[in-house]
Amino acid sequence: MALSTSLARGVAAAAPGTLHARTVTDELSAPPRQGVTLCFGRGEKPDVDLGVGVDDLRVSRRHGELTYRQGMWWLRNTGRQLVRLPRGRMMHLSTEPIPLDTGYTPLFVKGTGYREHLVELYVSGHDDQGPVSRRRAETVRPETFALDDDERLLLVVLGQRYLLYEEDPRPLTYSMAARQLAYLRRDAGWNERRIEHRIEAVRRRLDRSGFRYPLMHDKSQGRPTDNSLLHNLIKGLVESTTLVPPDLELIEDDAGWPEVAP
Question: Are 97 and 12 found together in one domain?
């Protein structure tokens, strides 16, 4: 959801550090003044400054606060439900306040069932001209990653559940992938060890290219016991549209191959 036209005009004219906030039902702007506190939640004014999830009883009447101190806006969750921030970061009411970066920050208040209520936050910077309309500009293509033919086939086999957009998908095991590749490429000599080495090489290469998710073991945390790095690899490739559902055509000629066990 984009910032509204009126809010965009406010951002462009605002002093550095000004906070702009918007929900489906409300919006506001506040100057960077020491001690200023804004409240958001399901309640009514003057108890809250910004309404969010006003029809959802899972949202607290005072669900969060935004306070300006030490030259920054600080976010605190005061509600019973979690608040979700970018990159999957969660805030509980016991979580310490966190500072907002200059620019745009979306946060989501957990509601009833699968509902999540969006709060858009924007902190003006020193040279901020505000959001500029780019309706006529060309769309920026997703950042994709180069894969050779063998790598693409291997990752499609391992990540076919992701390309079917299943709920909470997991990669095939290397042994399952080796069995399917034996049908698809009988003379290619794919086995578990070769698959593991090839996947590690892809992870090393993409890790150096600014990949969104961790791809290499953090030695300070010990070696993981599951296939979380392979999950990160496939998830990132699917989200970036490097791998797309039509790639499943690469494995459609596996006549007689049994269905993959869940």
Answer: yes
